[in-house]
From TrEMBL:
Keyword Transferase part of the UniProt annotation: no
Main location: other
GO molecular function: hydrolase activity
Signal peptide span: 1-29
Protein name (Swiss-Prot/TrEMBL): Strictosidine synthase conserved region domain-containing protein
Length: 349
């Protein structure tokens, strides 16, 4: 009996060590954050999706008139929120979308259909033209004309290399230039865990110019570039590096133009980055660096950083919530998306 109990204890200990090893890689050890103002993300209003298996509002966007939010979901569509009475309606869809074939079922989950139907990740409107730009994980960079409908694929390969994991997108509202990321040249979204586990460093940061329909690779050889946001002064881009748990700053103007540097070392694995309208950025954290599956049911959902990369505010909430984006609107409302939940959450500061 003693031997059996001893073996069980050893197995439990080994399991815990394996869990810790997975949680601590590949990010460096977390550094404590000093006393920082904290928002309770569990106190939120939900904008629920219709359909028991529909989920995954990854990114959140508002159009130039302030309507929305808009969000891409697991069956390949982009939906628009029309208020509590009408709820969500279809705004856009990519080439190859078919309602019957792309609707998930218990025998055909979204992970099976998304390579055909598409998976909209980053969303950004260009306010001047009314165009919506979509970073679709499988179809590439797409654009939808004002009013919605079928999206047009603008870019699905760059320099002869296909986009395998198109992820984040942002738009310079003055020039109309579109900046976007391809997280890996080796793995698709359905293999995203492999990008982190292998330390894949084949990601690319790119620019699309709608004036001449040209694409430029700004930087290659990046480790898991994910979300992207342009700074308030339009001098640089902030790119989330998911595996390394960092933010990278890439200069698009000034004496440092064409160079990059690390802006922040984050306390978790970042997904999307959004400008907060105050010179800083909200960074959604999918998981903390040293998060354990047991213990208190609370973890970091997101952090707000200032222009220098310092954490100045945090949002915490239950571990069941794994945010992919946090977007701030007028009045301090925070709209939070997640690939795992069937709703967009609205949190008030």
């Amino acid at each position: 009996m003693g031997n059996i109990m001893g073996k069980k204890v050893v197995k439990v200990a080994i399991s815990l060590l394996l869990v810790l090893a997975l949680l601590l890689q590949p990010c460096a050890a977390a550094r404590p954050i000093a006393e920082t103002p904290t928002i309770d993300g569990s106190r939120s209003l939900h904008l629920p999706l219709r359909g028991s298996l529909l989920r995954g509002p990854e990114s959140v966007a508002f159009d130039g008139d302030g309507a929305g939010p808009y969000s891409g979901v697991s069956d390949g569509r982009v939906l628009k929120w029309n208020g509590p009475v009408r709820g969500w309606t279809t705004y856009a869809y990519g080439p190859g979308y078919d309602a019957r074939a792309c609707t998930a079922s218990r025998t055909r989950p979204a992970e099976v259909t998304e390579s055909r139907c598409g998976r909209p990740l980053g969303l950004r409107f260009h306010d001047g033209s009314g165009n919506l730009y979509i970073a679709d994980a499988y179809k590439g960079l797409m654009r939808v004309a004002p009013g919605g409908g079928k999206a047009t694929v603008l870019v699905n390969k760059v320099d002869g290399v296909p986009l395998r994991f198109t992820n984040g997108v942002d738009v310079d509202q003055v020039t109309g230039e579109v900046f976007f990321t391809d997280s890996s040249m080796n793995y698709q979204r359905s293999q995203h865990e492999r990008v982190t586990a292998t330390g894949d460093s084949t990601g690319r940061l790119m620019k699309y110019d709608p004036q001449n329909n040209s694409v430029t690779v700004l930087q290659s050889g990046i480790t898991y570039p994910n979300g992207i946001a342009i700074s308030a002064d339009r001098t640089h881009l902030v790119v989330a590096l998911t595996g390394p748990c960092k933010l990278m700053r890439y200069w698009i103007k000034g004496s440092k133009m064409g160079t990059s540097e690390i802006l922040a070392d984050l306390p978790g694995y970042p997904d999307n980055v959004r400008a907060d309208g105050k010179g800083g950025f909200w960074v959604a954290l999918h998981r903390e660096k040293m998060e354990l599956p047991f213990g208190p049911d609370v973890h970091l959902l997101a952090v707000r950083i200032n222009a220098d990369g310092r954490v100045i505010q945090m949002m915490k909430g239950p571990k069941s919530v794994r945010p992919t984006e946090v977007m701030e609107r007028e009045g301090g409302k925070l709209y939070m998306g997640s690939v795992e939940l069937p709703y967009v959450a609205v949190v008030s500061e």
